[in-house]
């Protein structure tokens, strides 16, 4: 089976984000970069799919040179090969549709049966790339998947998280699945895995090599524009309610909720 | 371009992978295992699954063959979170697997290494005896070749990984005769944990490394096949010295990683604890302690990595290994001391990990050659002390 996992490198959740002086983007210098946690569920599910049905797992990622580290991590987890798209025209803020066009272009040139993607990237939280790729390829998509089982070699049954419950869907291949927490517990990249990863094929391509026009997918081709990036206002410090007895504390809390917070 | 401080991509990835593993798998259980003085078979197996055993062993025998610098980075990252688990891995590799890999014959390697690298079993290095500590050459344990078996009598003490559910084999240094020059002949012999006449008893009541296994060994007419001799007869003392040179790097890594972990805890605490209306880190007295810690850790890391680099490039490294072991363990001593100080009363409570780091550090100045012995090794190497020491 030909299995593809789309993967994005994002800032570590514990990184302190700073906005650049122009207020147009974040300062990337001191950031620790990691594999997007939702993409990690996708990579893990891709590996499990290979373990069940055999085949090849290909990682596809767009990003600058630093993204190679996240790609190597995916290879160290057990993926077989990777395609990395890096082009000066993509520096900064290529929007979701632009990225989806690039990914779709690659997917049109390689065989695939099933594609996994994160449900969203934890940096810009757009949640659009996966669905847009499926649309561009004209294949079914199953989004926010938090459970997956195989009915047979060509049919999956998935669990989707929906408001107030869950939805179960069966779908035949090919399909694109966006992954939600709960789908699996991603494995660690083991030390022998890391050593093997450096020998696995990793192809870096620019837009020209993909036959794409920067006017279509780069900054110029963007259909949206980020006007301003700003940090949320600093949170006010919390208040600890003290008192001798639970009753006393509850009474004080109720008073505060009514008179200060005005929520009851 | 000869002087280069850049780590390779794999070395960075290995640090990242071991750090993530240690934070997710070890950090949540470290305090409880320490409190209960419990060696965890489960956690050891998980570390083996990560490829943390057999770090410098070739793939042919099931090792992960990540290179010496990467091995040291891995131990450093484990020690940043917990000394006991770092000890299991450092001793498992440098003391347990090391002698078998470097001195074993093909059959011994095939017999033991794949299982050791998978973490099915652990190997230990039995050198220290009740009456032979720093003076490790004065072993009293004797092995006599009777027919096609060694008959071993004696005892060993303080042996890491020697008395736990996973112990599979022990490299035992014993007196096997007298050399032509009249000196005692020392050899190393592989003693399987289930050998006849062998008994291992876990040592309880440790101040530090409480979740690492330490055993006392007893040999009473212990019988093992003649072919269990490691390397050549009479090579035991040399094998022991070379093993300790390598082992020192892993103890140094524990000092460095432990210092790093303690520093991070102190930094975080200093930036959050408020007294007199300010974070305590904003008082110069506290900020300077942290500045000193960061400086010493930087020196320690550079010294240790240089020693590892010498080793990885097959250059003499014994002097630098002793220096790194001495310096890194003493740096951690100063760092944990000030880190507890920064935590005030809370730093003395078990609820805070810094309390465990403070205890775990002390071993580093004693195990695998005390700080005094390291100074002797260094002094000899710089030409100030004679052999008589
Ligand atoms: C938790 C733990 C794990 C260990 N694991 C192992 C293991 O896996 N395998 C193993 O073989 N051993 C192991 N050891 C033993 C360890 O290596 C010894 O404890 C150490 O070498 C010191 O020996 P000793 O305890 O007999 O102290 P001693 O040698 O009696 O030393 C006592 C003091 O005298 C000083 N001293 C001794 N000689 C001199 C001298 N010439 N000049 C100046 N000062 C001197 C020492 O520095 C020390 O301060 C372990 C020990 C511990 C505590």
Strand order of the largest sheet of chain B: 1-4-5-8
Please tally the β strands of chain B and state the result.
10
Q: Name the shape of chain A in a single word.
A: globular
Approximately what portion of the residues of chain B adopt beta-strand conformation? 15-25%
CATH-wise, what's the superfamily of the largest domain in chain B? Butyryl-CoA Dehydrogenase, subunit A, domain 3
Q: What ligands can be seen in this structure? A: flavin-adenine dinucleotide
How big is the Rg of chain B? 21 Å
Quaternary organisation of the protein chains? heterodimer
String of helices and strands of chain B: HHHHHEEEEEEEEHEEHHHH
What is the domain total for the residues of chain B? 3
Could you state the CATH homologous superfamily of the largest domain in chain A?
Answer: HUPs
Describe the structure.
The complex is a heterodimer of chains A (264) and B (389). Chain A has two domains: 2-221, HUPs (Rossmann fold, 3-Layer(aba) Sandwich), CATH 3.40.50.620; 235-264. Chain A is built from eight helices and eleven strands. The radius of gyration of chain A is 22 Å and the shape is globular. In chain A, the strands form two sheets. In chain A, strands 9-8-7-10-6-1-4-5-11 form a nine-stranded mixed beta sheet, with helices on both faces. Chain A has a two-stranded antiparallel ribbon with strand order 2-3. The longest helix of chain A is centred in the N-terminal third of the chain and has 17 residues, at 37-53. Chain A is α/β, with parallel strands linked by helices and 264 residues long. Chain A starts with a strand and ends in a 5-residue tail after the last helix. Chain B has 389 residues and is of the alpha+beta class. Chain B folds into three domains: 9-121, Butyryl-Coa Dehydrogenase, subunit A, domain 1 (Orthogonal Bundle), CATH 1.10.540.10; 124-234, Butyryl-CoA Dehydrogenase, subunit A, domain 2 (Beta Barrel), CATH 2.40.110.10; 238-381, Up-down Bundle (Butyryl-CoA Dehydrogenase, subunit A, domain 3). Helices cover 50% and strands 17% of the residues of chain B. Chain B is built from ten helices and ten strands. Chain B has helices at residues 9-36, 41-49, 68-79, 83-103, 106-118, 236-272, 284-312, 318-343, 353-361, 371-381; strands at residues 122-126, 142-146, 149-160, 167-178, 184-192, 196-202, 214-225, 229-230, 274-275, 278-279. In chain B, strands 1-4-5-8 form a four-stranded mixed beta sheet. Chain B has a four-stranded antiparallel beta sheet with strand order 2-3-7-6, covered by helices on one side. In chain B, a hairpin with a 5-residue loop joins strand 4 and strand 5. The mean pLDDT of chain B is 95. Chain A binds chain B through residues 68-69, 72-73, 76, 188-195, 197-198, and chain B through 9-10, 12-14, 16-18, 20-21, 49-52, 55, 59, 64-66, 70, 74. Flavin-adenine dinucleotide (FAD) binds next to helix 4, strand 1, strand 3 and helix 10 of chain B.
């Amino acid at each position: 089976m030909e299995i593809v996992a789309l993967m994005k490198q994002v800032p570590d959740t514990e990184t302190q984000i700073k906005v650049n002086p122009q207020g147009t983007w974040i300062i990337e210098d001191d950031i620790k970069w990691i594999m997007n946690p939702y993409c990690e569920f996708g990579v893990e599910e891709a590996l499990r799919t290979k373990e069940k049905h055999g085949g090849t797992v290909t990682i596809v990622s767009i990003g600058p040179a630093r993204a190679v580290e996240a790609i190597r991590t995916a290879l160290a987890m057990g993926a077989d090969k990777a395609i990395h798209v890096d082009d000066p025209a993509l520096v900064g803020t290529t929007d979701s549709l632009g990225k989806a066009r690039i990914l779709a272009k690659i997917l049109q040139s390689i065989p695939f049966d099933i594609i996994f993607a994160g449900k969203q990237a934890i940096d810009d939280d757009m949640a659009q790339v996966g669905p847009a790729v499926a649309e561009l390829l004209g294949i079914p998509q199953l989004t926010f998947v938090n459970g997956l089982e195989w009915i047979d070699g060509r049919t999956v049954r998935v669990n989707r998280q929906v408001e107030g419950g869950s939805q179960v869907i069966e779908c035949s291949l090919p399909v694109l699945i966006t992954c939600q927490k709960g789908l699996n517990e991603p494995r660690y990249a083991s030390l022998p895995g890391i050593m093997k990863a450096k020998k696995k094929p990793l192809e870096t391509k620019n837009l020209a090599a993909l036959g794409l026009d920067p006017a279509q997918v780069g900054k110029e081709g963007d259909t949206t524009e980020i006007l301003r990036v700003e940090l949320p206002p600093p949170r006010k410090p919390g208040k600890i309610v003290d008192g001798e007895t639970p009753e006393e504390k509850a009474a004080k809390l109720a008073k505060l909720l009514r008179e200060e917070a005005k929520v009851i | 371009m000869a002087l280069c401080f850049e780590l390779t991509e794999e070395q960075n990835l290995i640090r990242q992978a071991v750090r993530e593993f240690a934070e997710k798998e070890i950090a949540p259980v470290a305090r409880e295992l320490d409190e209960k003085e419990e060696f965890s078979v489960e956690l050891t197996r998980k570390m083996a699954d990560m490829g943390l055993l057999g770090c410098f062993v070739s793939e042919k025998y099931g090792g992960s063959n990540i290179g010496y610098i990467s091995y040291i980075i891995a131990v450093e990252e484990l020690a940043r979170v917990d000394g006991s688990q770092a000890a299991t891995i450092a001793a498992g590799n440098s003391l347990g697997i090391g002698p078998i890999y470097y001195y074993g014959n093909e059959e011994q390697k095939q017999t033991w290494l794949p299982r050791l690298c998978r973490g099915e079993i652990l190997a230990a290095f039995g050198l220290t005896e009740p009456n032979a500590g720093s003076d490790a050459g004065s072993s009293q344990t004797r092995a006599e070749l009777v027919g096609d078996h060694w008959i071993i009598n004696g005892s060993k003490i303080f042996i890491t990984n020697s008395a736990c559910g996973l112990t599979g084999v022990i490299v035992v240094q014993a007196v096997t005769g007298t050399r032509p020059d009249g000196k005692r002949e020392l050899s190393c012999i592989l003693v399987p944990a289930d050998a006849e006449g062998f008994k291992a008893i876990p040592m309880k009541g440790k101040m530090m490394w409480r979740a690492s296994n330490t055993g006392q060994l007893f040999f009473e007419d212990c019988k093992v096949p003649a072919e269990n001799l490691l390397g050549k007869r009479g090579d035991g003392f040399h094998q022991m010295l070379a093993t300790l040179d390598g082992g020192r790097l892993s103890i140094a890594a524990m000092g460095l990683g432990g210092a790093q972990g303690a520093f991070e805890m102190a930094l975080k605490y200093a930036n959050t604890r408020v007294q007199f209306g300010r974070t305590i880190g904003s008082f110069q007295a506290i900020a300077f302690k942290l500045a000193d810690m960061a400086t010493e850790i930087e020196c320690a890391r550079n010294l240790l990595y240089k020693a590892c680099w010498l080793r990885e490039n097959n250059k003499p490294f014994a002097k630098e290994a002793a220096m790194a072991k001495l310096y890194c363990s003493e740096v951690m001593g100063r760092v944990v001391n000030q880190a507890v100080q920064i935590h005030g009363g809370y730093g003395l409570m078990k609820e805070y990990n810094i309390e465990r780091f403070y205890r775990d550090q002390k071993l580093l100045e004693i195990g695998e050659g005390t700080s005094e012995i390291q100074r002797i090794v260094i002094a000899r190497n710089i030409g100030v002390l004679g052999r008589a020491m």
